[in-house]
Amino acid sequence: xxxxxxxxxxxxxxxxxxxxxxxxxxxxxxxxxxxxxxxxxxxxxxxxxxxxxxxxxxxxxxxxxxxxxxxxxxxxxxxxxxxxxxxxxxxxxxxxxxxxxxxxxxxxxxxxxxxxxxxxxxxxxxxxxxxxxxxxxxxxxxxxxxxxxxxxxxxxxxxxxxxxxxxxxxxxxxxxxxxxxxxxxxxxxxxxxxxxxxxxxxxxxxxxxxxxxxxxxxxxxxxxxxxxxxxxxxxxxxxxxxxxxxxxxxxxxxxxxxxxxxxxxxxxxxxxxxxxxxx
Length: 279
Prior knowledge:
alpha/beta; eight-stranded mixed beta sheet; single chain; two-stranded antiparallel ribbon
């Protein structure tokens, strides 16, 4: 029987066998509760273990070229959980991915951008979608290129993977040669104002966004797509009057069951202000 790292991690966290903050506990409980009601009239989604394992196995075949020698990527269990959830949950109606949006908050140097790079590389080369647009997005071009460069690094470090791609660094463009999909780095400072029909968008450090215009431009362009993923990552920042704070508040309501958003994956890694709230 295939190993289910996603559900095993969720169970260990929910049972208190792994120390975790309240909001990650709630993300794990959400997965476990959804498993109980999957494939029902009121919850027309199901968990595809093979799809979850496919993205995890793909990730752990990648090579990190940075440093003195190449290293094979090894996911920590929280990363395997997040990737497996996003790609494992499907819709009954068309068997496409359930989650169209994702919000992940975690402290710096915990692999947020790496995770978005994994997803972009996987979708560009191995999605059934042809000639799709993928974007790495931020307020500034330098920030937007971080996830793009992560993908390019994976490709350049693996001769087998490189056969599936063409990198044009001067254009900040990666083309998946078999699917025709392209990955481009876009930024607000370079004139990102219009919507784009993207099958995948990595929106980096949303706490640096002054408003929701970039998110809305990307989100509005995906409405006609049967399958997409807008993956927002952040360290949350410290501005209480901001788009990030609004999105964070909404994400927490989803985790706590105060609002329903079945297409929205949320995981927040943060210290608790009140441990009594986790029972």
